[in-house]
From TrEMBL:
The lineage of its organism: Bacteria, Pseudomonadati, Pseudomonadota, Alphaproteobacteria, Acetobacterales. SUPFAM superfamilies: Nucleotide-diphospho-sugar transferases. It comes from the Bacteria. Residues 32-194 form the Glycosyltransferase 2-like domain. Residues 1-23 are annotated as: Disordered. GO terms for biological process: lipopolysaccharide biosynthetic process. This is Glycosyltransferase family 2 protein. Keywords: Cell membrane, Glycosyltransferase, Lipopolysaccharide biosynthesis, Membrane, Transferase, Transmembrane, Transmembrane helix. InterPro entries: Glyco_trans_2-like, Glycosyltransferase_2, Nucleotide-diphossugar_trans.
Length: 267
C-alpha cells in the first residue's frame, strides 16, 4: 500500500472551482472540512447538507478526497459541488485513510482544519463547538492545539467497541497521549501544525501523540456518535487491530528518536 507521503502523485483530477462553475473561495478561509471517503456515494449529499447547516455563518469549504472508490462516489461529489462550497480530489488507487487526509489538508485553504469521517457517524453539528474550543485555547497563548472528539456513547458493534477500548488503553499507556478516543474521526487543528507532522500510513490514529511530539497540546471534547445508516464499513476489526499494534511500536520509536530544540533568537 502506498504511504501517505506518496499519496499526492496518486491523486488524479482536482475538481477545482472553475471545473464546477463556482467562483474561487477567498484564500485563506477560516475553516476547511476535510473528509476522506471510499465507496460512500449514498452518504455524500446528506452529509454535505448537514455540514452546510452546521457551519452557516462560518466561512468554510468542504474538501473531499475520494480514495479510489469503485461506486458512484465521484458522481455524487460532482453533483453536490454544483450547489455547495465543495472541492474534491481523487486517488487513482486506494492509498488509505491517512493518505487521503494528507492530500486533503495539503489542498485545503483553511487556517483551521476539521476532519470528519464520510460515513455519517460523526455529527457535523459538533464542529462549531470544537472550533470555538480550539480558537479559545490558541488565543490563550498555549501554543499549537488539537481538539479531539471523544465518542462518549459509541454506536458501533460490541466487537468494535471492545477492540477500540483495548487499543486505546494500550496506546495511552505506551504513548502517554492523554486522549481517551484517538479513533474518533472528528478533530480540529491548525493546518500549519498538521503540515509539520510526519506523514505515514495510519498516522490519523496517532494524531494526538504526533502533535505532542511536535510541542503542541491536545484536549478532548465529548461529541455525538451515530449509527451508520447507509453503505458498509471499509475497515475490518481484526486486521485494523493487528496493523495498529505495529504502528504503535513505530510511533513510540518516533517519540524517543526526537528531541525538541528550545530555539532562541541570535544576537
Amino acid at each position: 500500500m502506498p504511504s501517505a507521503e506518496t499519496a499526492a502523485p496518486a491523486a488524479a483530477a482536482l475538481a477545482s472551482p472553475g471545473a464546477t462553475g463556482r467562483p474561487a473561495a477567498p484564500d485563506p478561509l477560516p475553516l476547511s472540512v476535510v473528509i476522506p471517503v471510499r465507496n460512500e456515494a449514498p452518504n455524500i449529499a446528506p452529509l454535505v447538507a448537514e455540514i452546510e447547516a452546521a457551519l452557516a455563518g462560518i466561512g468554510h469549504e468542504i474538501v473531499y478526497v475520494d480514495d479510489g472508490s469503485s461506486d458512484g462516489t465521484v458522481a455524487a461529489l460532482r453533483a453536490v459541488a454544483a450547489g455547495a462550497p465543495v472541492r474534491f480530489l481523487r486517488h487513482r488507487a486506494s492509498c488509505g485513510q491517512s493518505a487521503a487526509i494528507v492530500t486533503g489538508v495539503k489542498a485545503a485553504r483553511g487556517i483551521w482544519i476539521a476532519t470528519l469521517d464520510g460515513d455519517g457517524q460523526n455529527d457535523p453539528a459538533d464542529i462549531p463547538r470544537l472550533l470555538a474550543r480550539a480558537q479559545r485555547e490558541a488565543g490563550a497563548g498555549g501554543g499549537a492545539i488539537l481538539v479531539a472528539g471523544h465518542r462518549v456513547t459509541r454506536r458501533d458493534s460490541w466487537v468494535k467497541r471492545r477492540s477500540s477500548r483495548i487499543a486505546n488503553r494500550v496506546r495511552a499507556r505506551l504513548l502517554k497521549d492523554n486522549t481517551p478516543d484517538t479513533g474518533c474521526g472528528l478533530k480540529v487543528f491548525p493546518r500549519a501544525l498538521f503540515l509539520e507532522l510526519p506523514h505515514f500510513d495510519h498516522m490519523h490514529r496517532f494524531l494526538p501523540a504526533l502533535v505532542l511530539r511536535q510541542g503542541g497540546r491536545v484536549v478532548s471534547e465529548p461529541v455525538n456518535h451515530r449509527p451508520r445508516t447507509r453503505g458498509a464499513s471499509n475497515y475490518g476489526t481484526l486486521d485494523r487491530l493487528a496493523v495498529s499494534l505495529f504502528d504503535l511500536v513505530g510511533v513510540a520509536w518516533l517519540q524517543r528518536r526526537w528531541k525538541r530544540p528550545a530555539v532562541e533568537a541570535g544576537e
